[in-house]
Task: structure prediction
Amino acid sequence: MDLAVGNIQAGDNAAEGAGEKTPTPRQQAVLDAALGLIVDPKAALTMSSLARAASCSKESLYKWFGDRDGLLTATVRWQAAKVRGRPVRRGELDGELLKESLERFAADWLTVISGETSVALNRLAIGEAAGGGTGRNLGRIVADNGPLAMGRRLTPLLEMGREAGLLAFDEVTEAFRDFFGLVVRDVQIRLLLGDRLDLSPASIRADAARATRQFMALYGAHQGPDGPALKMKGKE
Amino acid sequence: MDLAVGNIQAGDNAAEGAGEKTPTPRQQAVLDAALGLIVDPKAALTMSSLARAASCSKESLYKWFGDRDGLLTATVRWQAAKVRGRPVRRGELDGELLKESLERFAADWLTVISGETSVALNRLAIGEAAGGGTGRNLGRIVADNGPLAMGRRLTPLLEMGREAGLLAFDEVTEAFRDFFGLVVRDVQIRLLLGDRLDLSPASIRADAARATRQFMALYGAHQGPDGPALKMKGKE
DNA sequence: TCAGTACCGTACCGTACGTTACGGCCGATG
DNA sequence: CATCGGCCGTAACGTACGGTACGGTACTGA
Result:
């Protein structure tokens, strides 16, 4: 949450597909109040409770966001806009920098998914994905800003590592998904199911280092006399 | 779903902590109808809809299950009782059998979590875990029959592998969690978020083989002249 | 035959919530 | 100063749902 907070304020954001306008400051305050209600375990996000919490009228909520689904969509988008990370700078890439970058990715990701905001938002999107016919954009938006966003951010680094002869893989997508699994393991599903799981900064650092070490053991291009530890080509 | 269906019918099940009686056949039919409603994307599980679908009265639902939460709990328990797997038989364990057992575990698990029943039930439990004060047993029950059950089933096999000198690890829990991550990766969270993801039997088999191969590369006790590929002790 | 039991079908109640409508306040604009 | 648009606060409406009550039916056992 507190990592790489980069609010898009100047200019219009050309990204994000269909033209979605950035909310006004007043609307941003409302969306922050909505996030607070979503996160609070003993509070439910209803249009009335949000109007009360944000000191605005329900009429304004409907005018600004259309309906409840539009409000949820805008809230998810607003939160997603807050946690965007910076891309890796191209250029010199040696083994040490690659390892540090991977560890940083892993630690950042564990920090994000263990945050109460991320847990609450994923729960909301998953609950929304249960109903088939309703506005199921939520699940896609969260997925886009969840695992898929991590993939988009990590893929260039992995390919740079391959170009530099530090990594060996055929499909960058598969390499990323393995890294994802080594980092997340059962943490996210257990958090979503309500399991108490203390993710202290120290344990996050240790987990990030472990995942990176394992990933390098699987995909590192060892320059030693023996080849890579794991051959990816050929089936069986 | 269709793997290792072992209905507990004879005698009372001494397991499962607080004494929970096995439902009568009529109640089992009702619980199956509840599962059908939970799975159906365009149907919601309400007491009325379940009474209609199961051709029973709401009064009977409340008499049998107490309240809505009891019904959900019983439904989750009922489904969990259906997918229990068999333990691995002790005795001779060589490298080939270990590999086959791991692959079987991985394939079984991918089959379970990609089943629509598992997805729907996990969604339900996650949605229920959002409200803090309500009967949050659901999340714990699903977790107990989800990752934790897989851990309980897999741990003995891993320790047998270590005793046989085939695996090398310090903490069996950590080894299991790594295996879990290699198997599940981002599949479960994407399925929960509504992502379409074709898990054909062929791809499941391939994924199970890949995860097992990677796990053995990380944790296998190589009998070659060089030591294990990954030292687990010592930090940094 | 008659009481008892278990169950179905349905009507009903209270509440929560999404959504709409209305009255009042305030700053801007002419 | 008058008017207008944006917004707040609140009341009101319709619906959905959890939970309860009641009448009707089939079966059992004395």
